[in-house]
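Page 42, continued from yesterday. The earlier attempt failed because a stray header line got pasted into the input along with the sequence. Redoing it now with the clean sequence only.
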Amino acid sequence: MLILKNNPQSAIRNPQSTGTATVEFVMAIPLLALIIAGTFFFGWLMRNHLRLRAADRYAAWRSVEDTPPSGAEIDEEFFDGRAEGTHLEGDSGSDETLQAFIVAARNQSADADELAENLVARHHVPRARGQKIKTKFTTSVEFWQKMAPGMMDSRHVREGRDWVRGEVNLGGSLRELYFSDIEQSVEDVAGENISQSLQNLFQNGW
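This time it went through. Structure tokens are written below.
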């Protein structure tokens, strides 16, 4: 029969183990503080990056639809006035839709290709616009400011796809491409009256 005896010394804590645990905890505090500070720092950077991406998309949309915003407007609306040196650099983006339109016309015929080229070259058609925003985010935390990457930038391109009724008139291009020889022949045979009538027909009512 196994008899368990109470050992009074087993209930007494070992002072040495208690001191060791305290020392280990004190030594871990700086590491834990660094991890927490790093988590907040990277969260701050990610927040600023997302704000910057939203701002450049808004700027590209504004440049296509209306006029691009100013750096002060971007700073006030997206960065709460906490950024420095915010400025925009506009450029022309890649007109993928227009190029696809020209390629599709080229696959139809040489005349359609020429008409598409004239349309893009001579008339106001939707164009792509790009906007690049550069700014520097500031913070009251000195450590974060030292670790920050300085100037941050982001660029976005938006295609213009809104066609306005009446802005594109293909009468001149169509006349030059298809009807110039016919007009010349009619003018040579019948005089200016029939030629002028055909011209009015092609441009206005045809």
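Notes: Helices lie at 15-65, 71-78, 96-108, 110-122, 142-147, 171-190, 192-205.
Reminder to self: strip header lines before submitting.
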